[in-house]
């Protein structure tokens, strides 16, 4: 049966969670591995100067892992480990031709199940960018906020993404494996064994080169301008203000911090201090989640912490 090898769920990720995931990508997204894309691996969030922005990714991973395990893991009669997870934005002109996920390269052969969560709506937020299987009754999947599509990663599910014509197509991509040696959780917990040490999340921000586009522009600076702000460096800090020079000026610790501040103002209509109450609450939630994750040996967000919104 076709339902055995692929499955579509609607409404599994809430509107608020999708909004938070888009916000995380807008804050930290960097140059993608494909032309005209931006990408953000979970690891890069954890090493950033705002590791608590990983909270909505951890929650979404948990939800999707449950769906995949219940449908595909039971079929295979084995446990499926998350092998890779990350956010991606497909920009106008981006596309990918017919392929299947487990056999593009030798280093991908361990992938057993693929899953994609759509974080915004085709037609409203972007045009083009349909997901299509090569054969079967379920051939086309229209991206819709909160929708999840999952499928076996082998040649039974050859697929493509049609060219994005306009807008920004946001997704959360995950791959699953039955090989514990490729368990993403174990690798991240080994890399970051404890908060507050040199190997803790947030200790090693990614280099600026990772934010350079093919044209040499800094993605963060382009976003700041598009939001209607300008920023200039002053010593070790950055000054952010509206492009027209009117209104408040905010002193920020980095270019990334400047972008996050600009996004918060535009998304939430607030210039709340990044070091204020919301920030401290999120930091505490991240610390508690990480401590529990280390105890359990897998990444985990307690339900009462998952309720915290970024915006």
Automatic annotation (TrEMBL):
Keyword Transmembrane helix: no
Database matches in InterPro entries: Oxoglu/Fe-dep_dioxygenase_dom, P3H, Pro_4_hyd_alph, Pro_4_hyd_alph_FE2OG_OXY
Organism superkingdom: Eukaryota
Record-annotated Fe2OG dioxygenase domain positions: 70-178
Keyword Lipid metabolism part of the UniProt annotation: no
Keywords from the UniProt entry: Dioxygenase, Iron, Metal-binding, Oxidoreductase, Repeat
The enzyme's E.C. designation: 1.14.11.7
Cofactor(s) this protein requires: Fe cation; L-ascorbate
GO MF annotation terms: iron ion binding; L-ascorbic acid binding; procollagen-proline 3-dioxygenase activity
BP terms from Gene Ontology: collagen metabolic process
Pfam families (UniProt xref): 2OG-FeII_Oxy_3
Protein name: procollagen-proline 3-dioxygenase
Record organism: Chloropicon primus
Source taxonomy: Eukaryota, Viridiplantae, Chlorophyta, Chloropicophyceae, Chloropicales
């Amino acid at each position: 049966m076709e339902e055995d090898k692929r499955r579509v769920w609607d409404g599994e990720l809430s509107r608020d969670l999708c909004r938070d995931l888009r916000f995380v990508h807008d804050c930290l997204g960097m140059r993608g591995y494909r032309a005209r894309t931006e990408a953000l691996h979970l690891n890069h969030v954890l090493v950033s100067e705002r590791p608590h922005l990983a909270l909505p990714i951890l929650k979404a991973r948990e939800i999707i892992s449950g769906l995949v395990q219940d449908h595909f893991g039971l079929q295979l009669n084995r446990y499926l480990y998350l092998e890779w997870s990350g956010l991606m934005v497909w920009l106008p002109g981006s596309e990918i031709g017919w392929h299947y996920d487990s056999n593009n390269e030798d280093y991908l052969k361990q992938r057993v199940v693929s899953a994609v969560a759509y974080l915004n709506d085709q037609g409203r937020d972007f045009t083009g960018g349909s997901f299509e299987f090569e054969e079967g009754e379920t051939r086309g999947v229209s991206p819709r906020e909160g929708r999840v599509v999952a499928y076996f990663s082998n040649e039974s599910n050859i697929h493509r993404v049609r060219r994005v014509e306009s807008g920004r197509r946001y997704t959360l991509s995950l791959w699953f494996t039955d090989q514990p040696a490729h368990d993403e959780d174990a690798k991240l917990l080994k890399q970051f064994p404890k908060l507050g040490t040199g190997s803790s999340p947030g200790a090693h921000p990614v280099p600026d080169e990772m934010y350079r586009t093919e044209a040499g522009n800094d993605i963060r600076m382009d976003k700041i301008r598009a939001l209607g702000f300008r920023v200039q460096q002053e010593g070790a800090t950055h000054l952010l203000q509206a492009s027209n020079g009117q209104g408040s000026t905010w002193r920020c610790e980095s270019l990334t911090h400047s972008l996050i501040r600009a996004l918060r103002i535009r998304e939430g209509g607030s210039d709340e201090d990044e070091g204020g109450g919301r920030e401290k609450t999120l930091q505490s939630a991240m610390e508690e989640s990480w401590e529990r994750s280390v105890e359990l040996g897998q990444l985990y967000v307690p339900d009462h912490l998952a309720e915290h919104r970024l915006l």
